[in-house]
Design brief:
This protein has 4 helices and 27 strands. With 529 residues, it is mostly beta strands. A hairpin with a 2-residue loop joins strand 10 and strand 11.
Amino acid sequence: MSAVIANFVTSEIGDRVLIGPLGAPQTTTDAASKVYVDNSVAGVLKYRGLFAPSGGVYPTCRVAGYYWVASDNGVVDTIQYYTGDWAVYNGNAFDRVVSEAAAEYVATWAGSTNLTTLGTITTGVWHGTKIDETHGGAGAVSGILKQAAGTVSAAQADVDYITPSYVANWAGSTNLTTLGTITSGVWHGTKIDETHGGAGAVSGILKQITGTISAAQADVDYITPSYIANWAGSTNVITLGTVTTGVWHGTKIDETHGGAGAVSGILKQAAGTVSAAQADVDYATPSYVSTQIGAIPDASAIIKGLVNTTTQTFAGTKTIKGDVVVANATDPSKFGTLSADGSANLSLTAPIVKLGTPLWSDLQMISSIRGGATAPSFSSFITMSGSYPIYLYSFSNGDIVYFQGQMPHNWVQNSLIYPHIHVATTSNMSANTVTWRMVYSVVNKITDVITTTPTDNQTSQVTGLTAYTPTMVMFPSSGAGKTITGITGSSALIIGMLTRDSGSYGSGMFLIALDFHIQMDNVNGDPLF
């Protein structure tokens, strides 16, 4: 609704609409001052009464063409209404029709102390109090705009601001303490002292004579190349660059500063002269070292290492703490030999001598079967050349074998062991499975009590084998191995059992070998007992 019916309100009386001066709703008794319009005329608004915008809600009756008059000020649905405004329902929502009284109120409004924000003022004259410096006014500051007799006059050139001509004719000031880069001009002031870049009382490149500065003289105030070429030097010279030519004719250079001094060795001194160094006299050659009999310090001294040669001979009795690793001189991947001649004893007190890193070896277990329903059958695995059958233990679910063994004397005590078996089938397994279980104990040969608690109890599953293709089954199945601890002597004993625990593979699975991977010392074993 965009039309404004100025200074009038309407009232619906029966089938007529009354249009009259702004005020309270009209009645039929005001007919002399009203204009009546039939309410059936198309487009005529129908007055429904007053509503209070301060309540924040529109009237509940909503018919297109109905309108209400605001009885006070308030906001409804974010729209500000003033007394006398119309709220007209357009069929979907309410439109606000501005009362002329509100328009006149705004036009004649003198403002308010509550007003703190303005838009961009493009016309008008400021007649308020002076704007202070903080808010953009000149305040009490004179300068670009000066204040006189209470008014602000226009700025004057070379008084309130500086012009180029003023600067060009400026004689300077004692307040000037910083200059830019001066590229032209003649200095006519007092002498510049030494502190501020002048010659001062110092003669040199430019010398001072009778108060004036004369031109510099070659080889007096500055140095020329010919002067340097003929210079004899000075005791003041203490630093040189890299000297690439020349002969030293000064006193002997002592040991502290790089000379031979009184030390004979790489360069020997004789009769006041330094002779050339002699091989195997003043310095050692590899062939000289390889034929020497080393004097290795006793255990209390720090041993840095041994000469890496084909043959190394040691004289006397030596006590060496730590490992002695002997490698082949021409092929370090192979081990060397350690021997004793007829005049000396070679004592190998375990475990002080080791040739290289411990090696892995297979410890084969002795297997035995149990009679009865749980024993694996001894069946033909494969026939070679058509006439020679090879028999192995064939396991079904629940079949058991027992095994026992003894760790060799040169087993690295308390190191990792890897229990495993090698098995094969005579037909393809496809997706079928077999689960194996190994239970065993490792104990000292004499001191340990064999208990019902095993060293390990592991299962491992096999699936998808191809016929006659061996596979290695690890316990545990991850192949992580088992660390054996608590073994204090040699000849540790192993006892255990192996069983085919379960599985969906219906045929027998053949056991080819049952063994442990163990680490072996490469030279000496443990004591016999």
